[in-house]
Amino acid sequence: MGASNDTGKRKRALLVVALLCVVAAIVFANIFKNDFVGYDDQNLIEGNQKIRSLSPAGIARMFVPTHRGNYQPLRTFSYALDYAVWGMRPFGFQLTNLILHMLTALGVWLLIRKLAPDPTAALAAVIFAIHPIHVESVTWMSARKDVLCLAFFLAAVLLYERSESNQKVGPYLASILATGLALLSKLTAVSIPLCIFLFMACRDGKPDRKKLRRTAIRLAPHILVVILVVGLNLVRIGTVSSHGDALAGLEHAERALTRDVRLSMPLVVLRYIGLLIVPTDLSTHYDVTRISSAADPRFIAPMALILFLTALGIICFARGRRLAAFCLGWFAITFLPTANIIPAGAMMTDRYMHIPSVGFSVLLAVALLYPARAASAREKSTMRLLALLPAVVVALLFSTLTIRRNADWRDTTSLFSRTLLVNPRSVDALLGVGAMRFNAGDVDSAIEVYRKALEIDPNHYRINAALGAAYKSKGWLNEAIEAFEKSLAMNPDYLKAHSNLALCYYLQKRYDEAIVEHREVLRLSPDNVASRAGLGRIYLDIGEHEFALLELDRALEISPDLVPALTDRAGLLIQLGMREQTLRDLSRLESLGADTRALRAKLPAAK
Length: 607
Fold this sequence. Notes:
Blueprint: H1 2-27, H2 41-46, H3 56-62, H4 73-86, H5 90-112, H6 120-130, H7 135-139, H8 144-166, H9 169-185, H10 192-204, H11 209-232, H12 248-251, H13 255-277, H14 297-318, H15 322-335, H16 357-374, H17 381-387, H18 389-408, H19 412-422, H20 427-439, H21 443-456, H22 461-474, H23 477-490, H24 495-507, H25 511-524, H26 529-541, H27 545-558, H28 563-576, H29 579-591, H30 597-602
Helix pairs in contact: 1-5, 1-6, 4-5, 5-6, 5-8, 6-16, 6-18, 8-9, 8-10, 9-11, 10-11, 10-15, 13-14, 14-15, 15-16, 16-17, 19-20, 20-21, 20-22, 21-22, 22-23, 22-24, 23-24, 24-25, 24-26, 25-26, 26-27, 26-28, 27-28, 28-29
């Protein structure tokens, strides 16, 4: 009899696994029609040289902290694996995201079945797998960090629970490792120790002092891992990202702004709950009302709801309704890292709900299955099937909305068009539209879009820098310099602004200021070949031949086929009478298809 029961359990488990994989595959099948989008994909994947090598040195570079507040080396490593297998085909990157999403849905099922039997756990996992709010995390290739983080997050909790059940050290050590991997994917995993404590308390009941002490000791390594990775997010070694420093903008934010952000967050929580229940009009960015007073009803009402839900969670736990307590507690704890207690770059985005939505999925599953549970076993099978109708309807509705939302991410144009349709004040969407128009050669239209975006957010450092680049292309150097300076006032470590400002100063023959800007770029990014070559050209123009040759040599050590640097060095070598070296550079230029006739005409006259 026991063997028969075990076989039946295994078959049901395999059925649930197959169901989750098939459902996720069907709902997200249309993502394979999508391309990379001009919303970080071009920086993190298409233009990211780090992912093009899996050599030991290349892998080591991925794990060097270069992005304060945004240290996510495991995401970069996963991209490198994708590139090694698929090259730069979006299909491979999408496939990895989908597989990770399937694994997280399975993880949700494995986790919840420890607290509630099937079909509750299975339906919760299905809801999680098909919920439209997860499209951003699954479909957007740059959001790999979300699915990667949650996969290791759930593994850390499950492995800890297993170590408690079988008292073996292997799962416990694996739980600590999974915690580290989750944190190296995304810093929102700082809530893992609290979530483990919550899960064990809801599984076993209120712990006594002895158990609390034991749990604190066993969770100490997890907490140390959290502290270590948080520390790595506060340092920077070597090159910064093309987006600059993730913490620089926060360090220069006005106090009034940070206060308004915190006061606005209760309203954001209310909006998140609304989107989880009715996931329509989803967007990459939302227009969030800024609240500047604690006496504002828009702060008081949502805050009252949050306090009510907190009290409800405590009451549920005290009265033995541990599943409800777990769901409410999970949502609250995992939302805290994105609650802007320390203001982050965005106040509200769909991906911030990726981990908290696990709690919502379970609560919704319980609610949808209530009619079926309420139906008496004596009632006709037809009535029991009808009782499942709410769950079927919601599943079909969520699946339809997810499929439609996937199509919004088809390409850059469709993404930003949809975003602006939902939120016309999305400055990031306007930035994307402006970039598309600029790249298409419609500079005047791009300037118009950038100016419109700055009317909404005058302090957006990337938009100021983009406007400066557009001004520079028109030859309006004074206006460009002003825009770049505004960008750097908001984010002093933004490489693109420094590089473009150096070029503007050079074009105005303000060489000393251009040198300062290039040196700043090299402080942030020592291997920045453009600034090395730029310094070489400046020193060449002002007659500092020794310094010019030094910088050009450094540039060509990094990028041997950089034609402008080769051309400048060949011209300098002619002036210095270094014939053999000149001929080598000319041969190299010709092998790259460059026209060297003008340089060769000068060669005979060189001493």
